[in-house]
Amino acid sequence: MAQFKNFIGGKWVDSRSGEEFERTNPATGELIGTFPKSTEEDVQAAVEAAREAFNRWRLYPAPKRGEILYRVGQLLIERKEQLAREMTEEMGKVLTEARGDVQEGIDMTFYMAGEGRRLWGQTTPSELPNKWNMSVRKPLGVVGVITPWNFPLAIPTWKIMPALIAGNTVVFKPASYTSRMAVRLVEIFQEAGLPDGVINLVMGSGETVGNAILRHPDVALISFTGSTDTGTHVSVEGARLGKRVSLELGGKNAIIVMDDADIDLAVDGILWSAFGTSGQRCTAASRVIAHRAIQQELVEKLAARAGGMRLGYGLEETTDIGPVVSASQLERVHSYVAIGQDEGAELVVGGKIARDGELARGHFHESTIFNNVKPTMRIAQEEIFGPVTAVIPVDGLDEAIEVANGVKYGLSAAIYTRDVNKAFRAMQDIFTGILYVNAGTIGAEIHLPFGGTKATGNGHREAGQAALDVFTEWQSIYVDYSGRLQRAQIDT
Ligand code: UN1
User: Fold this and answer.
1) Secondary structure of 107-158 in the HEC alphabet?
2) pLDDT tier at 1 (50, 70, 90 boundaries)?
3) Element (H, E) at 295
4) Please, which contacts does 431-436 make with residues 24 or more away whose CB atoms are closer than 8 Å?
């Protein structure tokens, strides 16, 4: 049986606790392997290794850092299929989507590798003669990267690649459910020749390991993706300790379907966005805001297609929807079915935990649609993070926009319409970090800023150039070559 280890200072090491935890395949119940239950001392060692490596890594020329990232990208390409299969085994998403997850990681790696030859700063004229002003990006030091299980490869790369290209060193704590994928990524860094200590991996619970990283005085920044509850804790602790925190949290993303929309196109987008990855995306469409004129047609088409989706093991080609990640997540998702029914919403399809035959071995939930949901109901307000979506009828665009904005989150939204004026109104008046026109709520590309407003985050963005703002600090530099005292604001 595979026994995985932490990676600290360039070596694979056991936890000082000597304890381990297990991960089983969420579709079959088979054991994946054992992983170290790390302690505060392990985190201490990881941060020390990262701190020690920082002074060398930050002085390693950025284009050279980029070359290592290019090698990482190349290895990810070579191993794409193997990584995707292992991902499906570990967390359940279907193979095509697992390939997409790896591809997103490859894209981010190459994008940030290229930054090694840019990392632009600015030059700015001085108000004084014979003086040169500029501002440059500086790394922060040791950064803590804490990632979720739903994108076990992509999300770590969104954080680690910009961190490294900017000259930071990393302590990485992946979600326990997807620790093996984190090991695979770190193995690739090692093979690509990343110097010892530049990336360190510590596995275990958020309670012990996550908190130890968060509270360590030598960790300058925490980049966290996960639940809003945990994110609030990270935010409060970060503020108390005066460290930078970048948060990517929940969503309650809506797809508006107007009466002039291409209904079949909307159906495709809704099914993909609501049930892809079994609804376990922060960008998942868990609300459909339907114009009453097309509501019935839309719901009938959605229900027919959703009812025909095949649940199963993600490695089997015939599977449309995999399991959810764990037994506890299954219970949580399923509890929302009862909540929706109690609130008086109309269950049109799905609603059950699937227990037939082979499915009984895993954590499978039917794709579920509620109709005639009121915007105030819990199923219309709370993030479910599973294959459940709520259709909310409205009478027109103003109401649709009001309902779309009427949740505490602000990650992604979409509108299906053939009317360009309505599309522009949505772009103007919907306050989410991401907005799609005639496409579903998922599928962000890595060179655009990714993130959300309100309870979804804390103002930072991942991906694209915006990611560099998270992982760097500006330094303004004034070079006076006049050879005399020149007083700004006074001698001008
Ligand atoms: C997430 O669910 O946390 O846009 C990330 C998307 C993917 C990323 C999702 N590219 O759905």
Assistant:
1) HHHHHHHHHCCCCCCEEECCCCCCEEEEEEEEECCEEEEECCCCCCCHHHHH
2) confident
3) helix 292-307
4) 431/405, 432/253, 432/404, 433/457, 433/461, 434/283, 436/412
Judged by DSSP in three states, 224 sits in strand
Provide DSSP, 72-114: HHHHHHHTHHHHHHHHHHHH---HHHHHHHHHHHHHHHHHHHH
* Residue 35 and residue 201 in contact, taking contact as beta carbons nearer than 8 Å: no
Q: Ligand 1 centroid vs 285 CA: distance in angstroms?
A: 11
For residue 411, what is the enclosing H or E element? none
What ligand 1 atom has the least distance to the C-alpha of 434?
Answer: 4
Query: Computed from CA positions of residues 257, 263, 265, 270, in that sequence, does the dihedral angle turn out positive or negative?
Result: positive
CB under 6 Å to ligand 1: residues?
Answer: 104, 150-151, 225, 281-283, 442-444
pLDDT in tens, 137-191: 999 999 999 999 999 999 999 999 999 999 999 999 999 999 999 999 999 999 9
CATH architecture of 253-437: 3-Layer(aba) Sandwich (3.40)
Ligand 1 atom with minimal separation from the 282 CA: 2
The residues assigned a catalytic role are 248
Please answer whether residues 84 and 107 qualify as being in contact, where contact means their C-beta atoms are separated by less than 8 angstroms: no
Cα angle: 180, vertex 81, 363; to 5 degrees: 55
Please state, in angstroms and as integers, the Cα–Cα distance from residue 92 to each residue in 173, 307, 317, 466, following that order: 20, 20, 13, 31
Q: Residue 405, Cβ neighbours under 10 Å: how many?
A: 16
For residue 19, name the pLDDT band (cuts at 50, 70, 90).
Answer: very high
Query: What is the residue with the minimal CA distance to atom 11 of ligand 1?
Result: 442
Provide the token pair at 293. Answer: 């004129």
pLDDT for res 3: 96
- For position 492, what pLDDT does the model report? 85
- Rounded mean pLDDT of 290-306? 98
Residue 321 clears pLDDT 80, i.e. is over it: yes
Atom number in ligand 1 closest to CA 444: 4
- pLDDT, position 416: 98
Task: Tell me the residue type at 157.
Answer: T
Measured distance CA(136)–CA(167) in Å, rounded: 13
CATH topology of domain 2-249+457-476: Aldehyde Dehydrogenase; Chain A, domain 1 (3.40.605)
Q: The whole model's pTM is what?
A: 0.97
Tell me what pLDDT residue 26 has.
97
List the domain boundaries for the chain: 2-249+457-476, 253-437
ipTM over 0.95: yes
pLDDT digits (tens, 9 = 90+) for 353-404: 999 999 999 999 999 999 999 999 999 999 999 999 999 999 999 999 999 9
Give me the pLDDT at residue 81, please.
98
